[in-house]
Design goal:
The complex is a heterodimer of chains A (451) and B (357). Chain A has 451 residues and is of the alpha+beta class. Among the domains of chain A are: 92 residues, Dna Ligase, domain 1; 54 residues, no CATH class. Chain A is built from 15 helices and 18 strands. The two termini of chain A are 27 Å apart. The longest helix of chain B has 29 residues. The chains are: A alpha+beta (451), B alpha/beta (357). Chains A and B meet through helix 2 of A and helix 2 of B.
Chain lengths: 451, 357
């Protein structure tokens, strides 16, 4: 645990160095696409109060100077399957983003959607010796959390203090200077498969980039797609990606649960390819161009040419009848709907396991590329609950229009995460280390910056 | 077999083979063009990143070309003959442009100059015509020409058609100045115009003399203008002690004018002449240096007339008493007293103003 603590602190240090340089890239490594945006940190003050912009939820101090998206390679279920292929894809996307930005990028913050995340709620308690919660007590209470056995080869990706309580007063966000005898904390820890994380780190190192942070895609998608009220009141963000559907639950502006279903849009494509006996590219094109969930009578008459048009002449078999087939849109919907239902059923199971039904507000936000299927809202409302909407990512300055689709929610969220990471366990000084004036000052500075 | 043969198929009936008809071929799958890997190679990626580094970028885009250029130019110019070639080429090119017909000056036109000045001006032109207008420094030429005393003003200009035009305003001589080194012609401001060999060169001009007379030439002109009625008698003006003027008349008469208000003093003398016919009398000097008390020095004849009337012995041109030969010894004893008296009388007039001046 100490090793991880130092590793994460090193990454935070790297992030600070990147902020000092002013240029940082965020890299969303997804199963179907990889996107990279280069952020320029101009510091606050580029907007004045008279402009009516305000701090803009913390995204006003940076802007996007280069963005690129490419097809992902060598990925499966949100994990790296073929290292060399993934490395090539990372090189492609980073170099084209750099080219558009016109600057060299050295620091990268990456997110990973798969790698079997599992979240734990930890609790810690410490007695306040001075009768008052001091700065070092916060570090002490975080260190006092009883850590369960995460399993072999698991790495902690996030460990965020969610709630502080002094004596019986719970729900504190800043317990400093509270008078009491006991300080308790609730920490949400998210662990992922350590080997998958190691592969990611290796891949990025091979591209001559320094890793300045790793985040869970479900978490960052939630930060981008959920509006502030939803984060405050409690909601679930479902990031329907290509290989993995991530679920994250937010309440009181903290993520309290995250999980991932190892099913995604690529399964739907596979089903179409198998069901209609077409190539994967053709199936992908059919899904995005004609796909749907709710069949109507009109869809029976709407015939779709399943020819070499999308796949190109290379997919011509020479059999005229085979190459000039048509299917009705109803057929396509008939293939897609059961798979989407299955995915949503799995999500439902995850939400049930997380106890989402007991949340005060049960808002569900669908985002990710898969959420663009027409008619998904009605199906999701039937399966998941009444309050369902499609979430688009927050607007950030300088982002191109084509990257404001729900599919880029994780990318945008990662940019927000890069600009304002939430406090994590490793942001506090461990009590075993000397908590002299320096660490106190650091905590004080941290609190000043973040609250 | 006969029934099967179509009526038009005459060739078959004639036993000729049917033309070979190719079977419709199955469409060949076109060779797929090798898809290029969109990913940059590791080397390309690294080079691209190096290229995006500002330092390398600046070195490669500015430093290296500048260095290469400097190197090539330096190597080329390190040879002496090449440098000479280049400079010679440049000079030749400049020469070629400058000696174009449009820039050539073919002739010089001088207006308003006397033949002497004209000749001098042509001699002063530093180049021989025709010459390029780039070789003629008009300003320097103007300064040089202005050093000529006879020239007051000159306008030099190269006119279209290759004509160097010089419009000269010459100084007009207004007086002659006689000094220790000869005679010079002066204009009315006192600036030298030319030298003269004798006074007869310009008998129409008034004459001034004395050290520093040219500096007060303007005053001399006003004095000569004021001497209207007596002008025929005026021989000239003499500057005394570089300070004041003497008007010299013929018959050795002289009007001594004061340092300031000289014109008024002269007018006073003229008025005296008009009322008392002062100057037609035997008067050697009219001393007007003291404005309150004009003093007249009488001529020798007048003095002797006066002396004769008084019964005193006459005096000679040298101021000595002419002794009657008979009583020379007697007179010698008497001489001391009389001489004292006469010298006292005659020097009183001359000494007083000189003490004052």
């Amino acid at each position: 645990m100490g090793d991880l603590y130092h590793e994460q602190r090193a990454m935070r240090q790297m992030r600070r160095a990147a902020l000092a340089r002013g240029v940082m890239a965020v890299l969303d490594i997804g199963t179907s696409k990889m996107s990279c945006i280069v952020l320029q940190f101009d510091g606050p003050g580029q907007f004045r109060e008279e402009d009516g912009v305000g701090p803009m939820a913390g995204q006003s101090n940076f802007r996007v100077i280069g963005a690129a998206t490419t097809q992902s390679r060598g990925m499966r279920y949100g994990e790296i399957e073929t290292m060399a292929e993934t490395e090539r894809a990372v090189r492609t996307v980073v170099s084209s983003a750099q080219k558009r930005a016109g600057v060299r990028v050295d620091h990268v913050i990456a997110c990973l959607s798969g790698a079997r995340p599992s979240s734990y709620g930890l609790a810690g308690e410490v007695t306040l010796a001075s009768g008052k919660c001091a700065d070092h007590d916060i570090g002490a209470v975080l260190a006092s959390c009883d850590v369960p056995d995460f399993g072999r080869g698991r790495e902690v990706l996030h460990a965020q203090p969610v709630n502080f309580a002094v004596d019986s007063r719970s729900g504190l966000s800043d317990p400093r200077d509270h008078v009491g005898n006991k300080l308790a904390v609730d920490v949400h820890a998210l662990t992922i498969d350590g080997d998958a994380a190691g592969n990611l780190v290796h891949c990025i190192r091979r591209c001559d980039l320094e890793l300045a942070g790793v985040a869970s895609a479900a978490y960052v998608a939630g930060r981008a797609a959920l509006v502030e009220d939803e984060q405050e009141l409690g909601s679930a963000c479902i990031d329907m990606g290509g290989g993995v559907t991530g679920v994250s639950i937010f309440v009181r502006k903290h993520m309290i649960f995250a999980d991932a279903v190892r099913m995604g849009g690529e399964l739907v494509t596979q089903d179409i390819a198998r069901g209609l006996r077409v190539s994967t590219q053709m199936a992908e094109w059919l899904k995005t161009r004609h796909g749907g969930i709710e069949a109507t009578g009109r869809d029976d008459r709407e015939m779709i040419q399943v020819d070499g048009g999308a796949g190109g002449p290379a997919h011509e078999t020479g059999d005229w009848d085979h190459d000039r087939r048509t299917v009705s849109r109803a057929d396509l919907i008939g293939i897609m709907r059961p798979r989407v239902e299955e995915i949503l059923d799995e999500v439902r199971a995850v939400l049930d396991a997380a106890g989402f039904d007991y949340m005060p507000s049960r808002q569900i936000v669908l985002t990710g590329g898969g959420s663009q299927i027409p008619g998904l809202e009605t199906l999701a409302a039937r399966i998941l609950g009444q309050n369902v909407r499609i979430g688009r990512p927050l607007r950030i300055q300088g982002l191109a229009q084509n990257m404001t689709t729900p599919g880029h929610a994780a990318t945008v969220g990662l940019a927000l995460f890069a600009a304002h990471p939430q406090d994590e366990w490793w942001d506090f000084d461990m009590p075993v280390s000397s908590h002299g004036a320096r660490s106190v000052r650091r905590v004080a500075r941290w609190f000043r910056n973040h609250w | 077999m006969q029934q099967l043969t179509r009526p038009g198929d005459r060739h078959a009936m004639l036993g000729r083979p049917a033309p070979a008809r190719p079977a419709p071929a199955r469409p060949q799958a076109q060779p797929r063009p090798a898809r290029r890997d969109p990913a940059p190679s590791r080397l390309a990626y690294r080079l691209n990143r190096i290229w995006l580094t500002p330092l390398y970028r600046r070195i490669l885009r500015v430093g290296l070309p500048a260095f290469a250029l400097a190197m090539v130019v330096g190597l080329y110019l390190s040879d002496e003959t090449r440098r000479a070639e280049i400079s010679g080429g440049v000079t030749a090119m400049v020469e070629k442009v400058q000696t174009r017909d449009e820039f050539m000056v073919h002739s010089m036109r001088i207006e308003g100059a006397s033949p002497v000045v004209d000749k001098g001006l042509r001699a002063m032109l530093p180049v021989t015509l025709p010459a390029s207008s780039f070789d003629i420094d008009l300003e320097a030429l103007r300064v040089a020409v202005l050093n000529l005393d006879a020239v007051e003003k000159i306008e030099l200009r190269i006119e279209p058609g290759g004509v160097l035009s010089a419009v000269v305003t010459e100084r007009t001589p207004a007086m002659l100045w006689r000094h220790a080194r000869g005679i010079e012609l002066l204009d009315k401001t006192g600036h030298r115009v030319a030298s003269a060999t004798s006074r007869d060169v310009r008998p129409d001009l008034p004459m001034i003399a004395g050290e520093g007379a040219n500096a007060a030439a303007a005053e001399a002109m006003t004095l000569i203008d004021a001497a209207g009625p007596i002008l025929p008698r005026v021989r000239g003006l003499e500057r005394m002690g570089a300070r004041r003027w003497d008007l010299v008349l013929d018959r050795g008469q002289r009007i001594m004018l004061p340092e300031d208000r000289a014109v008024q003093a002269l007018e006073h003398a003229i008025a005296l002449d008009r009322t008392r016919t002062l100057l037609s009398r035997d008067v050697a000097v009219v001393d007007l240096r003291n404005g309150d008390r004009p003093i007249v020095r009488m001529g020798l004849t007048a003095q002797n007339t006066l002396r004769r009337a008084r019964g005193e012995p006459e005096i000679g041109a040298d101021g000595r008493i002419i002794e009657p030969p008979e009583d020379a010894a007697k007179a010698a004893a008497k001489k001391a007293t009389t001489k004292k008296n006469t010298t006292n009388k005659s020097t009183a007039a001359t000494k007083k103003p000189s003490k004052k001046g």
